[in-house]
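Sequence design from tokenized structure. All designs in this work follow the same two-part layout: the structure record, then the generated sequence. An example of the structure record is given first.
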């Protein structure tokens, strides 16, 4: 390695250094505000460092990391999302007792792991990034030890994540045994050139699908999602739904976009079935829920299925469509969980739909932001979600993957029903017999995060060209 390699790695190095700095701060002087501010500076510095490293990109740093403009775009999304989650976390924990500073270290290390996934070009770096992310998430989910739901959610995630990692490692071992390479680019090229009838290679790919399917909460590997989403603190749930999944999806987008000759490979046919099942299952199961966090959990399963429509279709629009939709999804889902965060009080989160009854009459600004995020998730015009779904459908139509596009449209219509349930509850008349205790005042940090998310949500829906120009500039030829 030389100085240019270090410059290319600057965003990763900055994130790692700030995680150590926050840890040292905690060791010498516990201060919640100082840890929060230092973490914000860390994510902001990591984002700025992306632009400093651009002149030397693309660059292959050893065999482990591929650093290019494609990766810089997705790392930027992750750093912005983590910055917003930090704002929400500070407001969430500000008035609670106990020592909360370590959660910022976990945020930094989890984001570092997700960023490594974006740049991974080798089996080893891929697995190290994934495990850095996953191990940090265990503790993030269980951070408040005194709350039983947190511990239960963390234990479920720990056990299932360990099992999925075993599947993933065994699958990677089988692929290496058959292909003789641990470089992801070479392995993908050899899989696309042949091997459709090789039982060992297909077994390895199937095991990898199981491992990755768990990390992304795709059907039928989704059963952990509603319990973890409901049990974890609302800002942490937002982090799991965005930063952790964003890194894995960017990795898939780099290496598994099919071309016209490989779409009918059994590996891609299996993923197509999983995508359709995720869209259908996520929306149907959400219809049965009365918990807002569980509704958003099943909704996130469906949205990952939507993303796979363009991913599996490939073609010229695939990268643009998925890159835009992932940005829109991150903004929208963080806005939704942000509302849950700022309304929650110590010891009790705003979660049942009944908790949001008459929100329009008592907190009209928050109700407006929540409504905008729900309509964006549903794909209603003038929101970021509508533009995102339009591009996903266009990518599918371009490559004539009509049956997946039909699934996207039909299941999106199903999803509109449960989003409207929440909106109707917020618009209902106040019921004095069912008084909900919301947070008395909105935390300043949470208010700033929600204001930024709301502006971005509407801006991306009304004027998408600004983000699309950035995407085309950064993701041309990943």
């Amino acid at each position: 390695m030389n100085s240019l390699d270090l410059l290319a790695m600057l965003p990763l190095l900055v994130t790692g250094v700030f995680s150590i700095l926050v840890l040292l701060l905690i060791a010498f002087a516990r201060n919640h505000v100082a840890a929060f501010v230092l973490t914000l500076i860390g994510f902001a510095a990591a984002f700025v460092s992306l632009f400093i490293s651009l002149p030397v990109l693309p660059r292959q740093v050893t065999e482990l990391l591929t650093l290019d403009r494609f990766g810089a775009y997705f790392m930027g999304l992750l750093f912005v999302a983590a910055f917003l989650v930090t704002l929400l976390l500070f407001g969430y924990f500000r008035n609670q007792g106990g020592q909360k500073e370590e959660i910022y270290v976990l945020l930094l290390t989890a984001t570092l792991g997700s960023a490594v996934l974006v740049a991974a070009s080798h089996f080893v770096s891929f697995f190290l990034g994934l495990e850095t992310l996953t191990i940090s998430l265990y503790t993030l989910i269980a951070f408040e030890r005194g709350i039983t739901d947190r511990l239960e959610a963390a234990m479920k995630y720990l056990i299932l994540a360990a099992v999925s990692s075993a599947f993933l490692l065994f699958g990677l071992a089988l692929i290496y045994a058959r292909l003789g390479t641990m470089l992801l680019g070479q392995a993908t090229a050899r899989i696309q050139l042949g091997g459709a009838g090789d039982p060992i290679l297909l077994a390895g790919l199937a095991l990898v699908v199981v491992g990755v399917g768990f990390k992304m909460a795709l059907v039928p590997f989704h059963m952990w999602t509603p319990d973890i989403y409901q049990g974890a603190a609302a800002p942490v749930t937002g982090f799991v739904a965005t930063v952790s999944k964003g890194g894995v999806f960017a990795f898939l987008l780099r290496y598994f976009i099919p071309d016209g000759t490989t779409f009918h490979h059994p590996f891609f046919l299996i993923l197509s079935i999983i995508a359709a099942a995720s869209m259908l299952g996520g929306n149907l199961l959400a219809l049965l829920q009365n918990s807002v966090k569980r509704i958003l959990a099943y909704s996130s399963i469906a949205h990952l299925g939507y993303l796979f429509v363009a991913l599996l279709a490939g073609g010229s629009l695939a990268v643009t469509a998925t890159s835009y939709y992932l940005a829109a999804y991150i903004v929208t889902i963080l806005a939704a969980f942000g509302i849950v965060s700022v309304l929650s009080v110590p010891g009790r989160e705003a979660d049942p739909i009944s908790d949001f009854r008459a929100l329009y009459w008592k907190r009209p600004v928050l109700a407006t932001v929540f409504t905008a995020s729900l309509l964006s998730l549903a794909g209603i015009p003038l929101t970021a979600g509508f533009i995102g779904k339009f591009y996903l459908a266009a990518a599918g139509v371009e490559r004539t993957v009509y049956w997946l596009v039909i699934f996207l449209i039909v299941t999106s219509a199903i999803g509109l029903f449960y989003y409207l349930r929440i909106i109707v509850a917020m618009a209902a008349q106040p019921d004095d017999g069912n008084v909900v205790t919301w947070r008395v005042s909105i935390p300043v940090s949470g208010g700033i995060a929600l204001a930024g998310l709301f502006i971005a949500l509407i801006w991306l829906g009304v004027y998408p060209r600004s983000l699309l120009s950035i995407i085309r500039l950064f993701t041309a030829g990943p």
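The beta strands are 59-61, 65-67. We note this feature because it recurs in several other targets discussed in the main text.
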